[in-house]
Amino acid sequence: MSPPSPSAAPRVVVLVLAYNGVDLTLDCLASLRDLDYPNYEVLVVDNASTDDTVAAVRAGFPEVRLIEAGANLGYAEGNNLGLRAALERGAEAVFLVNNDTVLAPDCVTGLVRAWAAHPQAGMLGPMVYTWDEGHIIFSAGGVIDWRNANADNVGAGEPDRGAYPARAVDYVNGCGLLVTRAVLEKVGFLDARFFMYWEETDWCLRARAAGFESWFEPAAWMRHKAPIHHRDLGPTTLYYVTRNRLLFFARHTPPARKPLTLARAVHGAVRGIIWHYQAGRVAHARATQWALWHALSARWGRADAQLWQTDRPSASAPSSIRPT
Prior knowledge:
By secondary structure, the protein is of the alpha/beta class.
């Protein structure tokens, strides 16, 4: 489809993926209720929450369309479930939103205006601030460091002083990502092998290969309740970040650069294992071990978090990559 004219209001489905965190989900939906955009619908996909999320959403937000996934499908396949439903409901764009976010009232309006002004954009993201009051940046777009096998949120931890203008970026953070119908029809959905983390970065690069830009738009903004620094990640998050980093760079690194890039990714994981053991962070060390093992053996999708629990014997970890 063609991008909207500046005066048009294409149909946008705001897709909220929820897995527990009922209070966060309700705060997110309250902010969506206050959006000033004239043509949107809210769709919640619940990834089998074990708290009162489903009942609370139905009671507090009866206008919201709710899909119960029946299992924890992860970020990728949970959102894919919602994306298919959004397309069936005539969405011209879908705004993927984490449940631990709140949006400014004009967030969607700002993104749609940017889409109209930049017809080559297929993925668009707002300025993302941290959860606290003020304007500390969580993400002002994303940049990929091919040399060191990393991807960074631009400006993370900095006060917003206007240093990051609207521009094409390597990727848009998945906590708030607007994707156009044209991308979905040409590129497809999120790769379920990732389960969670790195899948939006993969998606943006697949879209770039198909001729679409990822666009950062600071005139639109939201807040996200998540750690900025890797040292603050829990063991399960660390597992997926580490494992999927290898999947991403194996898939997208240019051939001439790929051996060195992947070697650096593996080296970084091994250093992380040693550091976590030395710091007494046993669950983090085991999670990183299993991430490396699963990546090298091409085991993707959802993993059993009990593998890295500290009440399991150390022999349960893959000894070939455990430091002595």
